Amino acid sequence: MRKIILAVLTLALLAMPMLGQVPGVKADADPAADAEIMKLETELTHLILQGNWDEYSSRLTEDYVRTFANGAVQSKQQVLSEFRAPERKVLDMIPEDLNVRVYGDAAILTGHLTMLARQNGRVTTSFFQFTKFFVKRDGRWLMAGMQLTTVLK
Prior knowledge:
Elements: H1 2-19, H2 31-50, H3 53-58, E1 60-68, E2 73-75, H4 76-84, E3 88-103, E4 106-119, E5 122-137, E6 140-150
Parallel strand pairs: 1-6
Antiparallel strand pairs: 1-2, 3-4, 4-5, 5-6
């Protein structure tokens, strides 16, 4: 009897994620918005490489958060502080395999990132899988969040 109850509970738990999905919801076919997000991604990369932190900051929402694979979360101010630190400098960033999905005034960008950085005099190359979240406010796209996972190349 216990095995039957356990099997029924297991099946119910496995089916629960499907209950929250709305059938037929797909990203908008919006080439203009896709292009705006890709352009913003390019601008954000250039701003980081140039160290233009005020302009970079203006492209983020005030409640921007960056989340790492280990669950650590950084606020906008923490991210900017890390970027501004004199012992760390991003030397190059190469985003690849970018994919944009737009849902009205929200968008998701996924891709791979190769980053070359100098920290405490040592140059390192890191590889990431990322998901970035954007919102459109007053006709302008802003990055609201990012999830970053270190991966092997």
